[in-house]
Design goal:
about 140 residues
Length: about 140
C-alpha cells in the first residue's frame, strides 16, 4: 500500500472516529439539528476520588524524586563551566528545563487533585440538599 493510500485511510478512520466521539449534554454543537439521544457518560464519586488520589500520589512521588539531583547537577555544571567546558552551561540549561517542567507537572497534579476533591464534596452536598428538599416536600404534602 502506498503512503498516499495509507494516509487517506488514516484520515477517513480519524474522521469517522471524530464523528462518533462522545458528546456531553451541556451544549448543542449543531443548533437546530437533532444529533441523537442522551449521553451515556456517567462518573461516580469513587471514580473521581480514585483519579484525584492517583494525582496526589504522583505529586508526592514527583515532589521527592524529581529534584534529588538538583544540587549535584548545579555543582557539576558550575565546575565544568569554571574549567572552560561548554557542556557546563548545557548541563545547567538541561537541569533548568527539567526543573521547570517538573514544577509544571507538580502544579497540574495538585490542580487535578484539588479540583476533583472539590467536585466530589460539591456533588455530595448537592445530593444531600436534594434528599432533604424532597423529604420536606413529602412531609409538607401531608399537612396541606
Amino acid at each position: 500500500m502506498s503512503f498516499d493510500a495509507m494516509w487517506g485511510q488514516a484520515r477517513s478512520t480519524a474522521a469517522a472516529r471524530q464523528q462518533s466521539s462522545m458528546q456531553l449534554n451541556h451544549a448543542d454543537p449543531y443548533p437546530g439539528i437533532t444529533t441523537g439521544g442522551a449521553s451515556d457518560y456517567t462518573i461516580t464519586s469513587p471514580d473521581l476520588k480514585a483519579v484525584g488520589n492517583d494525582a496526589q500520589e504522583l505529586y508526592h512521588h514527583l515532589e521527592t524524586d524529581a529534584f534529588h539531583a538538583g544540587a549535584t547537577t548545579c555543582t557539576a555544571s558550575t565546575e565544568l563551566t569554571d574549567d572552560g567546558f561548554k557542556t557546563g552551561s548545557a548541563l545547567y540549561s538541561a537541569w533548568d528545563t527539567w526543573r521547570s517542567q517538573a514544577e509544571a507537572l507538580l502544579s497540574a497534579c495538585a490542580h487535578i487533585h484539588n479540583h476533583l476533591e472539590d467536585t466530589v464534596w460539591t456533588h455530595k452536598n448537592h445530593e444531600e440538599t436534594l434528599v432533604t428538599n424532597l423529604s420536606v416536600e413529602e412531609i409538607d404534602k401531608h399537612f396541606k
